[in-house]
Task: structure prediction
Amino acid sequence: MLKEPVLIYVFSGSGNTLSLAERVADVLLEDGIAAQLRPLERSDPGDTRRAGTIGLAFPVAMFSTYPFVWDFVENLPDGHNKDIFMLDTLAGFSGGIVGPLKRAVSTRGYCPIGATEIRMPSNYARTDREKPEDGRLRSRGSEKAASFAKDLASGRASWPSIPLLPDLVKRLGRDPRSSAWRAMRRKFPLSVDVQKCSRCGLCSKVCPVGNIIMEAFPGFGDSCLFCQRCISLCPGEAIGVRGRSFVPYRGADLEKMLDMACNGR
Ligand SMILES: Cc1cc2nc3c(=O)[nH]c(=O)nc-3n(C[C@H](O)[C@H](O)[C@H](O)COP(=O)(O)O)c2cc1C
Ligand code: SF4
Ligand code: SF4
Result:
């Protein structure tokens, strides 16, 4: 039986992970287990002391996940054998998460009870708003998340052990100043279309790494991790990659995404 409350710390740039973390919480609630979502990027890792069971939910990026997700994990307090699980969403392949994260949480004294990686539509460099397979991927993803939640509740979930090679993959993007992230920033710089921007300041508020400064218009610093959040949430669709005609992607209801990004659930 899962120890309550189950607090699921979730980061989602464009909604895929949020929708599946919500599905997990809803299925647990239907089973009578108290489960809530928390905004990972705005939570103090020390807050997890209040959880009976910790959930981590985040997207795959650079075959691993965003550096601020790793920062959260690496600053978790001593686990005292508390149960922890993870869910990530991805468009294709990760390689640098399941094994390294298991080692990271085990080293901190947690008991890793379940891990799942669920394929969802890609949120990156999209030229189509909605592809024919997107709806199918989202509904299969939702089913997988529900089945993962049932496995967690019944004690049937597992977190596989994966040998050391994934630690090398993880290192690719672990440091936000790494050459991989710097190359992305050079190749795909974000910019604002001032004709579309209403100067509402939302993008600056929701950026998980404080990379957007509001002046007359939003200005981008040099710490972008391409999480897509500002692009996905901008009400005027004013943010894009300079010189490219990519379109924003949203994998969850906009109100829910805004609520999570601005207030937490
Ligand atoms: C910067 C960036 C890097 C990504 N890297 C990977 C990757 O290495 N492997 C993969 O399968 N998907 C990758 N993706 C796709 C996302 O992981 C996937 O679409 C995810 O479901 C997005 O979740 P979200 O909507 O909760 O932000 C990447 C997306 C972005 C924006
Ligand atoms: S969220 Fe969009 S409209 Fe609002 S300030 Fe940012 S770019 Fe402009
Ligand atoms: S500026 Fe970069 S890191 Fe910040 S919200 Fe936008 S895409 Fe994410």
User: Anything to note?
Assistant: The longest helix spans residues 132-154. The longest strand covers residues 111-119. The chain is about 35% helix and 15% strand. The chain has two domains: 6-169, 175-261.
